[in-house]
Queue: 3 jobs
Job 1
Amino acid sequence: MKALTLLVFLLSTILVLADPSASPSATAPDGDALKHLLKEFLDGAGRNDLAVHERFWADELIYTRSAGQRLSKGDILRDTKAEAAAPKKPDEGVTTYGAEDVRVLQYGNTAVVAFRLVATTKKERTTEVTNYFNTGTFVKRDNKWQAVAWQATKIPAEHDPKK
């Protein structure tokens, strides 16, 4: 029985290793392009740039916010338009976004990008920093990467390794 179990395990491992689409690329050939896309997106998100959102998210997007809400691309575009049109409150501050500890796994024309999102809000007298773990699943179509699924999880201050 042990020999049979070992044989099944070895054959499964060989099949996974033999099929390049079944395992992540060790080098993630498009890793730099995906990191650049992420940086471009985060820069635009801080400005409520509708065109950046339109390019970044796939039409069939499933986005799960850290607050437990599920959104579509249409929801995000609607909210972005509303935020851009709303008058800025004096105490609202300016928020910028950055990515740290970015990891990319690529499976052919599919990739997973995981990172720590750092949201920095500068107000008149204070600066607030909030961290989130984000994981995005991207698909490459017509030589263009877009996010088809997204998960954001707020890191509680007491669990934040940066503090």
Note: The mean pLDDT is 86.
Job 2
Amino acid sequence: MKPFDKYSSYYNAIYKNKAYEEETFYINHLIKKFSPIEVEQVLELGCGTGGHARELLNYGYSVHGVDMSPGMIELAGEVNVKNNLFTCEQADIRELELNKKFDCILSLFHVMSYQVENTDFLNALRSARRHLKYEGLLIFDFWYGPGVLSDNPVIKERNFESDEVKIKRMTTPMINFNENIVDVKFDIEIRGKENGVTENLMELHRMRYFFLPEIKLFLELAKFEFTVAYSWLKEEIPSQKSWYVTIVAKAC
């Protein structure tokens, strides 16, 4: 089973408290600070259910989102119905061919860390470059190696609920130190509130953590100019305490 095959059905319930508004405020600030061109049209690689896109529309951007998961795109379509400045489609970001260029490309919530092979990551960057205007910005976040290795991921249990279901999620990580990968196993129990029916599902998400020298090398190979790396939601140089890092790069 591919990541999000079934998980997508419960994604909005699990992440209903995610700080989309705060995160998009931060991204908009980075666009205004670093973009040498006016940004109107945004391409979002790995748009999920449209949480960030919904907030980006409030800043006046038009957004086209792509995601590999049919379930995610189906849910993102609800944003499309409510605002025609957002469009979306199912696609693999490594092989994307839209025959259109955008002012800015975003890839948020660690989508790039799902590109676990060197070819996956490089192809995703090259795909972004094909769809970006000259001097347009690429902004993405990822799992940062020093942070992951100094504060190893641990087993966690969390509970969520929607109007219809209660959800219990057990997260079990396993670090593959020689591959720079964390295998994250999600065991999820979904219980209906009215009928009490229980569904159990398991998904394995392989997440790669990166280091800045390799990020810069990949960006150069994909014809990007590295601009800055910040700790996520901050304007600070990443440290060992930074689990997530934001990259801003410019198409050259």
Note: Residues 148-208 form a domain with the S-adenosyl-L-methionine-dependent methyltransferases fold (CATH 2.20.130.10).
Job 3
Amino acid sequence: MANFDDVILAAKSLSRGNVEVKMIDDVAGVVYPSFMFKMPKLKNSELYTGGAETTHPAWIVDGVEKTEFLFSCYINSVINGKALSLPFSDPKTGMNFDQAKAYAEACGVGYHLPTIAESAAIALWCRKNNLMPRGNNNYGKDHSAPYEKGTATYLSAGTTCRTATGSGPISWNHNGQPFGIADLNGNVYEWQAGYRTVDGEIQIIPDNNAAVTGTNQLATSTLWKAIMPDGSLVTPGTAGTLKWDHLVAAVAGGGFRLNTAIENVGADGVYGATSFAGLTAKAGVNIPEILKKLAIMPVDAGDHGGDSIYMDNHGERLGFRGGLWINTSSAGVFYLDGGFPRSLAGDGVGFRSAFVI
């Protein structure tokens, strides 16, 4: 194997300094490289038209502005309990939210499960720069460009499902370059930190505070905050907070909207679905800027890649970004599935790690 100094130099050179190779020690004393993409600090106005001239929350941790955060170039593998961002690997799947968080944080201080703020910043950057990535959203290939394929790593009944990380063409990278963040569109669901709903009430951990290693994100954590229509953050359960509400009596796959009350509650497992671009609020309900910054609501009435958003307003539900190998046009950087509990695990459920300090 090449000297790791050579690997680091090559990654920095070929990516023009945009990729940092972090060295991770496993419990057996073996050192592994982990490839991370640098996301330098940006203002909201640099991420979407009409955004405020203030720093996007992805770069604000415990009130301190950070110059950058690092985001895994690849859906993670796990070796001896630690998360690694490695190319041409089978994505690690089959872990619930808390297990994925533990794998990411096992790498040390600064490492964490990617947050809703970080993923939103990347999604908004892609849209702003007309670089919406394609990916494995149709059994190993992209639905809109079926000649684009990844290398199969997991098949079901002879049909490609998962593909090797970074094995697709450069159009599957967030920046359309050989060194970028791969597979944000499809392949496997990716757990997100810092976002959940409880009986439909939207709750977040403010700014990028969920990026702090060890942040309590259990169901009972007092760090979760609900959101008022004016954008202020309040204690969950406060009257008038923003919630997901079915448009009609709950029917699986039916539309939903932003509301300040639950008029149509779903039963357990009865989810709402709509295109992300088509998501709206009930007449008279204000959509605060914070929901646009976090890509929980569309920033304008334009296209958002055809991606979809899902919810279940019964019980605690956490979120996935990106979509699965079967989601075709619904998958993408704005895809947000908030229809499952934190206990969900399966062969289509994966994760990444991120880093900020």
Note: The chain has one domain: 1-357.
